Amino acid sequence: MIKYLKDLECINLERLLLLRGKELSLTDEECHILLLIDTFVTLHKKMITPSLLLKYSSLTPHEMDHILDSLLKKKWIFNKNGAICLNHFEEKLLENKEAPVEEKMNMIDVFEEQFGRPLTPMEFDSIKEWVQSGYSEEMILKALKEAVKSQVLTLRYIEGILINWAQNGVKERYIDEKPQERKVKESHYHWWEDE
Fold first, then answer.
1. Could you tell me which residues come within 8 angstroms of residue 173 by beta carbon, excluding any fewer than 6 positions away?
2. Which residues does UniProt call coiled coil (predicted)?
3. pTM for this entry
4. Per-residue pLDDT of the chain (195 residues; tens, 9 = 90+)
5. Which CATH architecture has domain 107-167?
6. Is 2-94 a domain of CATH 3.30.70.20?
7. Could you tell me which residues come within 8 angstroms of residue 171 by beta carbon, excluding any fewer than 6 positions away?
């Protein structure tokens, strides 16, 4: 199917490489070399060698070796009887492998969930001002947690907590640490030797 779409020129792999290069962890030089190799493959050039690539590039032989070595390690190319070949080039460009995104909770959603109602525009602006004045989202959410524990769900109370923590130098209220193990001194008394 991919070959069919490419043959119909529905997919332009060269443009796709240029647009997705950064996302695929490719440097500009690596993209350039891959484009050269793909061009030679399209022109049915059977023996693509580093010296051939050097003729069409401004890179030094040392830089070319470094880039080809990097592309080999990233499995974009492979060596077949001294010739450079692309390794599943089209599939790699077309695959949609998104990194697992950590679900970060939206702070406004957390407030609305805890308050049990949508926030008013003024409340929304107040929270925005806290962030702009230097409070981290984590700190604001911890202040909200403190307000929920105290069963006082007002932004004024939460702001009071933040101000109190800032004045007293408290950076984080709830430090997630393992409780320190209680150390008991070892006794070297051998009770069985007293007899």
1. 142, 143, 146, 165
2. none
3. 0.47
4. 555 655 666 677 788 778 888 888 888 898 888 889 888 888 888 888 888 888 988 889 999 899 989 888 888 888 888 888 887 777 787 776 654 444 455 888 888 888 888 888 888 888 888 888 888 888 888 888 888 888 888 889 988 888 888 888 765 544 444 555 656 666 666 666 665
5. Orthogonal Bundle (1.10)
6. no
7. 139, 165
